[in-house]
Amino acid sequence: MLRVGIVGLSQVGKTTLFRILTHTHGRAVPGKLEVHLGVVRVPDERLDLLSNMYKPKRTIHATVEYLDTPGSVIELARTGSQAQALREMRALAHVVRAFEDDSVAGSADSRQDIENVELELILSDLAVVEKRMERLEKDIKKQKNAALEKEHRVLERCKSSLERQIPLRELDLSPEDEGAIRGFTFLSQKPVLYVLNLGEKDAARANAAQEFAVEAGLRQRPNTAVTAICGKVEAELAELGDAEAAEFLASYGLKESAIARFIRASYQLLGLISFFTVGDDECRAWTLRSGSSALDAAGEIHTDIQRGFIRAEVVKYEDLIAAGNLAEVRHRAQLHLEGKEYVVRDGEVVHFRHSG
Ligand SMILES: Nc1nc2c(ncn2[C@@H]2O[C@H](COP(=O)(O)OP(=O)(O)OP(=O)(O)O)[C@@H](O)[C@H]2O)c(=O)[nH]1
Ligand SMILES: [Mg+2]
User: Fold this and answer.
1) C-alpha 208 – ligand 2 centre gap (Å)
2) What is the pLDDT of residue 239?
3) Of 108, 146, 212, 306, whose CB count within 10 A is highest?
4) CA 46, CA 52: separation in Å to the nearest integer?
5) What is the number of the ligand closest to the CA of 12?
6) Which of 90-94, 213-217, 224-228, 239-243 has the highest mean pLDDT?
7) What is the CA radius of gyration of the chain?
């Protein structure tokens, strides 16, 4: 499951975002004070339409798990157990306050806030790197070991990057080097989605996150993305029914809730795509790393399907919707038989033929 940690300084709107996303107060993580987990169904219009077509017994959306962290990530990164919860996340959603409100403590200085948080992640990783390198140097002195030397070399690169205050997500590591340090789950290596929490007067511009990014002095950097929400507006929105919600959004000049935009931005940042399986029993969206093969996709569903893989029958979502049903898709010769190596693309509907 895709897990994203919501972090930032204190009183920036992390819990507000978490509640908007999950519609809940989350469930406490045992042993981890005040850290809350919530599961979000990924909104996907395409799945809704497919489901409309098949009228299956079950429709299953892809899900993302969000972790709400209390207070400032600066204290968090310094407390063992809480930092550990963060290390288990695939990515960080870094909420940055861009609203002014005298009744809420603190103020909005996005650029400074981002730098402060970044520095904390870097220092946390640097401590881990230095400790491990010391240990490795002792071990290598005792006994030559190619694997340990390799790890040391990669950590050396990490260290020099961190010392120059460059987060590890900007390092260009080979898959092999990446593998050598994967176990450390470095915080500054995680992709970051900056979430600008706008004031109500800026709500109408929430679609234009890039403009704010420029104003906030956010440079385009590797493995980062930006999105904007207005916490206050979205929180009110979450309380409304569908029809009222649409009207309410329109009054702010918005077309959709920030949730869909937020989740799309997370997928893009992480290079994720969706593929679908359809049938009378179940229509379902699956999450896959972009560039994955049909064999990988089969493995997402079940190892048995992967093991017994024969062929993948693939149709583009648009073609299936336009044709109205699979028989017509076949008739139009839009159903393709693909092998294990085939690269699955976003929005494809796949049926796996498998043995066993
Ligand atoms: N005006 C305004 N207030 C907001 C907005 N988003 C959040 N707030 C308010 O800011 C305060 C802090 O919001 P939270 O979501 O609790 O912030 P947090 O980051 O979880 O705070 P801590 O967990 O205590 O660090 C609350 O009083 C919110 O109502 C916004 O977009 N506009
Ligand atoms: Mg909070």
Assistant:
1) 26
2) 79
3) 212
4) 10
5) 1
6) 90-94
7) 23
* Average pLDDT of every residue of the chain: 89
At residue 110, does pLDDT exceed 70?
Answer: yes
Q: Is the CB of 107 under 6 A from ligand 1?
A: no
**Alpha-carbon span 119 to 163, nearest angstrom:** 10
The reported pTM is 0.87
> Three-class SS string for 85-146?
HHHCCCEEEEEEEECCCCCCCCCCCHHHHHHHHHHHHHHHHHHHHHHHHHHHHHHHHHCCCH
CA separation for the pair 306, 302 (Å, rounded): 6
Residue 69 Cβ contacting ligand 1 at under 6 Å: no
Most confidently predicted of 27-31, 37-41, 241-245, 309-313:
309-313
Q: State in Å: Cα 19 to ligand 2 middle.
A: 10
Q: Would you state the pLDDT for residue 221?
A: 84
Q: Which of 272, 287, 265, 263 is nearest to 21 (CA)?
A: 263
CA 12 – ligand 2 centroid, Å: 8
Here the tokens at position 240 are 């409304």
Tell which atom from ligand 1 comes closest to the C-alpha of 10: 25
Ligand whose nearest atom lies closest to the CA of 231:
1
What is the rounded distance in angstroms from the CA atom of residue 7 to the CA atom of residue 226? 14
Cβ 193 vs Cβ 217: under 8 Å = no
Residues within 5 Å of ion ligand 2, judged at the Cβ atom: 14-15
- Ligand nearest to the Cα of 108, by number: 1
The length of the chain in residues reads 356
Written as one letter, the residue type at 219 is R
CB-side neighbour CA atoms (13 Å) of 298: 26
191 touches 223 (CB < 8 A): yes
Which residue reads 């929005």 in tokens?
347
Residue 107 neighbours by CB under 8 Å, 6+ apart? 97, 100
- Checking if the pLDDT of 72 tops 90, the result is no
Write the pLDDT tens digit of every residue in 136-148: 999 999 988 999 9
Supply the pLDDT for residue 245.
84
Q: Tell whether the model's pLDDT for residue 32 goes beyond 60.
A: no
Selection from 263, 19, 243, 215 nearest residue 114 by Cα = 215
- CA atoms of 301 and 306, how far apart (whole Å): 8
